[in-house]
Amino acid sequence: MLTALLTVVLPVLLILGFGALVGNRLALDNLTINRLNLYLLTPALALNSLLHLEVKAGSLTLLVLAYFVLSAVGVLLGYLAAFRQPSTTRRAVMASVAIGNNGNYGLPVALFALGQAGFDQALVIYLSSVLLTFTAGPLIFGGGGGIGPTLRGVFKLPVVWCIALALTMRGLHLQLPTGLDRGLGLLSGATLPMVLLSLGVQLGTGGRPKLSFPVWLASGLRVLVMPVLGLLIGYFIGLRGLHLQGLVLSSAMPTAVNAFVLSKEYRADSGTVASVVVVTTVLSILGVALVVPLLGRLP
Prior knowledge:
The protein contains 13 helices and no strands. By secondary structure, it is mainly alpha-helical. The mean pLDDT is 83. The chain is globular. The chain has a single domain (2-295), classed as Na+/H+ antiporter like fold. Helix content is 80%, strand content 0%.
């Protein structure tokens, strides 16, 4: 556990801390930082990584299926746990449990914990989470006017088109020219530190969380229960080795900032979601330190 804290969690915390400090002291524009991540850096990371990804298609299918099942179970679990809460709060709990931070937190943790091969698994989960978050998320919060407008919003994201381009190029056995490939690699390499700094800035400017019962409920389910469910669901579906490790590690991630973004967009209980993001990010420090040493014991 101590080794995991020093080698996996500490590097992440350092960058988060610098981001929080800078965000607290300087008047940074969060919207600009988020747009750089969403419209430039993340698409570059997706395109570059998928073009060089060394994972079998069958394993990818099982991994994505397991992640989707885990997310659906998380929504159901949040619904049952917060059944007696008001509708907006119940939906906030559902989204907070199901939508994990597999991007600006999960990717660097996977890289430090499992190496490049584990990072590839985490990237597949992250790209799946992007599609799921921006389709199922608005439906959970009860906004978006139905599935049609929601899907149109998804296809406006550059990362979706980069995924499609990368899959097409792999299917046709095409490669980028060397100069373009190297430039894309440089841009992709800037993504992880930038998204971690972005999360730190958001945490540093978010203020203190309100520790209500729904906040503790969603936080406990996200940090304590989801890793256990990830192990059971992944094993039942047929994941083994590195694929199972990647799923379990991703399920130990805190609630994603995107859950808060969606709650604001659709006028849901954004206060609860914002507090869950902060609480789960803090609790996940211990959670990740506990989960990482156990990964090597998985079948």
